[in-house]
Each structure stands twice: as C-alpha cells, then as structure tokens.
Amino acid sequence: MNQILDMQNILQNPIYQFSLYQHILDSIPDAIVVHQAGIIQYANRAAVQLMALPENKSAIHLEIWPFFHPSIVESVQCAFNQLYDSRNIGSFIPTTQYSMIRYDGTEFTGEIRSILIHGEKTPMIMSLTRDVSAENELKSRLEYMAYHDEVTGLPNRRFFKETLKQKLNEPAKRVNSIAVLFCDLDGFKNINDTYGHELGDQILMLIGSRLESLLYDEGFLARIGGDEFAIICSYTSSRHEVVSFAQKVLQAFSLPFFILDREFIMTLSIGIALYPESSTDMDNLVKFADLAMYSAKNKGGNRFHIYDPTESNVIEERLRIENGIRQAIEKRQFVLYYQPKVHLASGKIYSVEALLRWQTTDGQLIHPDTFISIAEESGLIVPIGKWVLLTACQQNKRWQDMGYDPISVSVNVSPKQFQLTDMEETVRQVLHETGLSPEWLEIEITEGLLMQNSNEITNTLRRIRSMGVKISIDDFGTGYSSLRYLKLFEPHILKIDQSFVAHMMEDPGQLSIVSAIIHLAHSLRMEVVAEGVESAEQALKLLQEGCHSVQGFFFSPPVVFEEIQQKWLQTSIS
After folding, report:
1. 389: burial class by Cβ within 10 Å (0-12, 13-18, 19+)?
2. Which stretches of 368-460 are assigned E, i.e. beta strand?
3. How confident is the model at residue 280 (pLDDT cuts 50, 70, 90)?
4. 561-568: Cβ within 8 A, 24+ apart
5. What letter would DSSP give residue 531?
6. What are phi and psi of 35, to 5 degrees?
7. Report field, pTM of the whole predicted structure over 0.70
C-alpha cells in the first residue's frame, strides 16, 4: 500500500510530469516549436535537428523569423499576428508549405500547422513542422514523368491534349485560329531495325530539339508516339502562316543529322487540322490532323497536307484496310495461289508464280490491288513478304519431297522490302529453314527497283544471284529501264507485261514492242516470259516471235496448291 502511495506522489510531482512530457514530445518525429511574439519558448528534439542547430546551441529564445526565407517573412508575421489577435485558444492556421532556411544556411520546404495555445500570461503559438522537400521532389518527378516523354523530355500525348483543351477554352477574342500539326517520320522503323533502338533514341532527341528550335512564342511541341510529334500553333492572321511554318519545318529537315560519324536524312509527313475551319471540337481536330498526316504519307511523304473534309472517307477507308491487314497477319488470313508458267513447245509446267490473297473470316478473297500499296506504305509488307517467301519455298520443297519433278517458284519482292530489310539475309534464312535448293527459287523485282540504282541494292541483288537464286524483271516495258540497268543488275529473266500481250494481235505497235523485248532478252542471253496469255492465237504468235515461256488464263488462272498438284504435277511425277 505504501508503495502505491509513493508511486502516486511521484506521478503528481511537477518535475516528473515535466520530464514525462519532455520524453513524449521528443519521441514525436515532427518538429514542435512553441513561440511567443516570434521568440522560441520550447523546441523538441526533432525541431532542433530540423533547424540544424549546433550541439552547444539552444533553440530557446531564438527568433523564428531567420528560419523563414526572407521573401515570405512579412506574410508569415501577418498570419501569426492574426492568430494572436483572435485570442481564441484552439484557433489554427491550416497546414501550409513555406520556403525555409536552416541554421547552417541550407534551404528546405517545411509543411507547418500552427495552433494558438495557453501561455503563462499570454497565448502562445505551437507550430508542428515537417520537411517535405524529398516528398515534393518525388511528386514533381512523378508528375513530370506523367506529362513528359522519357526519351526526348518533351511533353507527351497527355500533356498535348490538356494543352490543346486549355487553348480551345480560352476567351474567343484570344483564340482566332489554332493549327494542330501531326508530324510522322518517314521510314524511321528502318533506323531502329538497322542500327538499334539506342541510336534511334538519339535521333529522336535530335529531331525533338530541331523541331523545338523552329517554334515561335505561341508554339507547343509534344512527342505523342513512337516516331510521331505534334505541334500546336496559335496564329492570328491567316492560313498562310501555318503553311509557311510547315514549309519551314520541311526545309529544316532537308539538313542531315550526324551521329557517330554517320549521316542521316529524316523527312517528315505533316498533317494539319485548323480551328475553327476543320472543326471546333478537340477530338476531331486531333483525328483530322492524324488523317491528313496519313494523306501526306500516302503521297510519298516529305510533305504537308491540310485536312480536307472531302478526303475523310478515303483516308478512313485506308486506315480501316491497314488495321485489317494487321489483324490478317495476326489471324493468319493470308493464303497463296499459284499460277503455272508453261513451256509452249511441250505445254508442261516448269515454274509457278506465288500470288498473295487475303481471305477474310467470311471466306471472301481480297485481291492484292486493294491492300498491297497500303501494306508497303505502312511497312507491313515486311512481315507479309517474309511469310510469302517462306510459305512458297516450303510448298515447293514439299512437292519435291512428294516425288514430283522439281519446278521453280517465283516470289514478287517489292522495293520497300529491299529498303526495310536485309533481303540477302532473309533469302538465305528461308532457304536454310526450308531446305529448298537456291536453283528452284526465283525473285521477281520491278523496274522501279532498278531505277533506284543504289550501290546497296546492286550489291544485294548480286549476292542473292551468287547464291544460285534467279532474278527476274516483272512487267518489263512499263517502266523506264535502260540497257545500262539491265547490264548492271544482270537479271536472268525478263517478263513481258500483259498490257502489251493483250493488244498485240490487233495493234502492230504493241506487237513490235513484244518482239523487241523478246529479241532484247535473247541478245542479252536472258530468258523471256510473256504474261497475260488468254488465247491460243496469242500463244502461237509468241512462239513464232521466239518467246518459249508463257503464263496466263489460257493455261490456268492462279489456283490453290492442291490444284497445281492435281492438274499440273501429277503427269510429271517420277
């Protein structure tokens, strides 16, 4: 019992109570400072640490004002004086962030909540302070990341759309006209595929810097996708200003970029939508700028195009087809048909041309004329082209393994495939994977590829040729080839375009062209094949002119591989 009474006496002892409160306050992580008329009356351990006081320096009786940044001292004094004047114990100043300075001169951001408490004679203020510098820095970094592109440091799509929305919501007197420009790099995928994403990112940073240097005061630039940038231009006088700006951008991109002693020319396709001419709705402005950009790209790139409502359906149809192509690749909806090439003297098949078709889920066959150009422009021709080459070689090898006499298979390769891939390596990999001997593969190219006349393409064709693969020129006579190009590329085969064959019986001029191509091929020791033969009279005339190989509907339209096997290969099985 006496022990209990002794404990009660201890607990009621003012010295013990003070010591207990001191211990409790020192255990609180927030800095607690009690001050009166700007003079510190008490500071807990966390406050001493936050103020960075020396060990031999007491906080008691120090002024609080030197701990605030000089620029805000007057406003803080005003706030504290108002709290004193209220004389209402328990009144408080809501949590506020202040720029503060420690005793050692370092700066930080303090979050302070101040409350009026009882004093011995007059009220005092108790301020609870937290250093939120690191927290604010993290918030700022996260906010920056949410609104900026990681590679270029430019605003991202989210920032772009919010900025556009803000500009459109400004008072009408300030928003006379706004232009939204979508800028898409031409052929950038080839950079990443050839040199890697690290160099590609360096180019993107240089492109962002160059675009940024072209902006004027009212311009806003963002990177909104992989190789897409968007610009908001607020201009006040005429449509002519945005046209001049777009021309200025295109001209600036005629200059090369230099990285690691390499020179790169990166052109742009620019789509433009105008407010209020194109639309007054933000989402439509973005959509129309995107559509206009695709229109510029469809016309060959390195140009700008202003949205025209009359083109909308055409552009949207193109986008629909492009999306359909992507789905067709994923769902494996592409199929190959084969058209026989026949020796006129014997009537026997010696080769087939692989022809691509797109078979939709409802069984509809879509002709390449509908989608090939879009596949080329979008770069989707690369996976499609590799699939065609692989599938055609696999099927040809399968026929050989079934015991049929070997025939060759010809595959059309577009200029885009040569630009966007390493065709030599692709052909080598396919032949290795399928086991097909190179002599039974024929690569068909167009005269357009010849006209590019680049050392890279020349060397690639020569290396493919050196493997034992045959090279043929498709649709010969419709382009601008010369004897010099034929000598340079040394193809094995010339194919006479069907447009000449179709009218040669009634048009002597067309017949003369056919005859000239045949004799040209013979003089250069090349094979010659006539396309589009649809009658016995055409076949006989070609034979008389010295053309010994043909293909066309007279012999067979393009058919599935089973029909080639049943109707053409069964008679020559060994």
Report:
1. buried
2. 408-412, 441-446
3. confident
4. 561/336, 561/338, 561/395, 564/338, 564/340, 564/349, 564/352, 565/399, 565/402, 565/404, 568/340, 568/349
5. -
6. -135, 155
7. no
Can you tell me the distance from the alpha carbon of 449 to that of 418, in angstroms, rounded to the nearest whole number? Answer: 9
Containing 515, the helix (H) or strand (E) segment is helix 508-523
Helix crossing, 282-298 with 157-168: angle to 10°?
120
**Which pair of structure tokens corresponds to residue 559?**
């058919």
> Which ranges constitute the DSSP H helices of 227-308?
239-252, 282-298
Coil, helix or strand for 298? helix
In SS3 terms, 189-223 reads as HHHHHHHCHHHHHHHHHHHHHHHHHHCCCCEEEEE
| Alpha-carbon gap, residue 47 to 126, rounded angstroms | 12
Q: pLDDT value at position 373?
A: 83
Alpha carbons 8 and 373: distance in angstroms, whole number = 95
Q: How far apart are CA 153 and CA 131, in angstroms?
A: 29
Mean pLDDT of 367-381: 86
- In the structure, what pLDDT confidence band is assigned to residue 27 with cuts at 50, 70 and 90? confident
Tokens of 257: 């970029």
Tell how strand 303-306 and strand 334-343 pair up: unpaired
Phi–psi pair at 51, nearest 5 degrees: -80, -10
Region of residue 101 (phi > 0: left; psi between -120 and 50: alpha; otherwise: beta): beta
| Among candidate residues 546, 499, 557, 554, the one with its CA nearest the CA of residue 521 | 546
To which residue do tokens 């120090």 refer?
A: 62
Q: How far apart are CA 574 and CA 114, in angstroms?
A: 100
> Could you tell me which of 19, 43, 18, 20 has the C-alpha nearest to residue 30?
43
Distances (CA, A) of 168 to 92, 179, 341: 41, 11, 63
Structure tokens at 211: 């675009």
**Per residue in 157-200, pLDDT tens?**
999 999 999 988 876 545 568 899 999 998 887 777 677 788 88
Three-class SS state of 172: coil
Q: What whole-number percentage of the chain has pLDDT above 70?
A: 90
Extract the runs of DSSP E, i.e. beta strands, from 447-569.
Answer: 470-476, 493-496, 527-530, 549-550
The H-or-E segment that residue 182 falls in is: strand 177-185
- Map 89-143 to HEC letters: CCCEEEEEEEEEECCCCCEEEEEEEEEEECCCCCCEEEEEEEECHHHHHHHHHHH
Confidence of residue 573 (pLDDT cuts 50, 70, 90): very low
Residue 74: strand, helix, or coil: helix
Q: Which two tokens stand for residue 294?
A: 């695709």
